[in-house]
Amino acid sequence: MTACLYIVATPIGNLGDMTLRAIETLREVDVIAAEDTRHSTKLMAHFDVRTPMVSYHDHSTPAELERLLMRLRGGDSIALISDAGTPMISDPGYRLVAACQAERLPVVPIPGPSSMTAALSAAGLPSDRFHFEGFLPAKPGQRSQRLESLRAHEATLIFFESPRRLPITLEAMCSVLGDREAALCRELTKSHETIRRDRLSALVEFVLGDLNQQRGEIVIVVRGFDASESDLSPDIWIWLERLASELPPRRAAAIVADVTGQPARNLYQWLLDRREQT
After folding, report:
1. How confident is the model at residue 264, as a pLDDT?
2. Cα end-to-end span (Å), the chain
3. Residue 136 — φ and ψ, nearest 5°?
4. What HEC string does 183-252 produce?
């Protein structure tokens, strides 16, 4: 094969999603750089791939990175794989790819499964624009701050989450973003796959009422800010809600009206409507 780094997507659950091109690439490269060689050994055995493997992950040393680069410089071909899905999507490999690009060493993607795009395709939410956030911070304060920064994004929001944090994350999303439409996508392509679309508040009740939903790999897709629902720009919406958290609604509406020129009565009514919805 041509001496280069191949970025190979592998199944996120169902082995039937492995592409013929991915299998051929893994068989023909000189070495496979795997996130976890013990995990990937089962996949290689299933598809009768006998190519040698080495470990490459987020904690790999600069010396290990340099060894891979030396092989590429010497004419070897390397396939980079993660434990599941497409490498670089919340998975290790960035440093290796960046180093190859810096040295003008060829990098070739072998596309395939991705839980992010699979969830987006099945969520039934706008997909023309989306923002992939990955994992939110684990600490409550940092998580809320990050969600605050995303409130005015009009693109559909996509998150990964761990099962043990799922209920509190959904509650935080509902509290900070509002009770938006969202989709919980769990164990995609596997036998216990769940795709549940509802309001965030209803998804909180759903996962608290069924402990099975707090297991496995999870993607959350959330509708972005919809200015048409409020007739307010994202900036005005944020100012109004922030002031209303500190002041009486009528006073908050009056201040924002003075600054923006919006009718205070409309702003006040919008605040009341929002509180009734939540």
Report:
1. 81
2. 58
3. -75, 160
4. EEEECCCCCCCEEEEEEHHHHHHHHHHCHHHHCCCEEEEECCCCHHHCCCCHHHHHHHHHHHCCCCHHHH
Per-residue pLDDT, averaged over 115-130, amounts to 96
155: left (phi over 0), alpha (psi -120 to 50) or beta: beta
The size of the chain, in residues, is: 278
- Top CATH class, 5-113: alpha beta
How far apart CA 142 and CA 146 sit, in angstroms, is: 6
Backbone angles phi, psi at 82, to 5 degrees: -105, 180
Token output for 66: 């340099």
277: pLDDT strictly greater than 90: no
Q: Which two tokens stand for residue 41?
A: 């050994």
pTM of the model: 0.81
Give the domain 116-225 fold: 3.30.950
List pLDDT tens digits, range 153-210. Answer: 889 999 999 999 999 999 999 988 888 999 999 999 999 999 999 999 999 999 999 9
User: 108: which DSSP letter?
Assistant: E
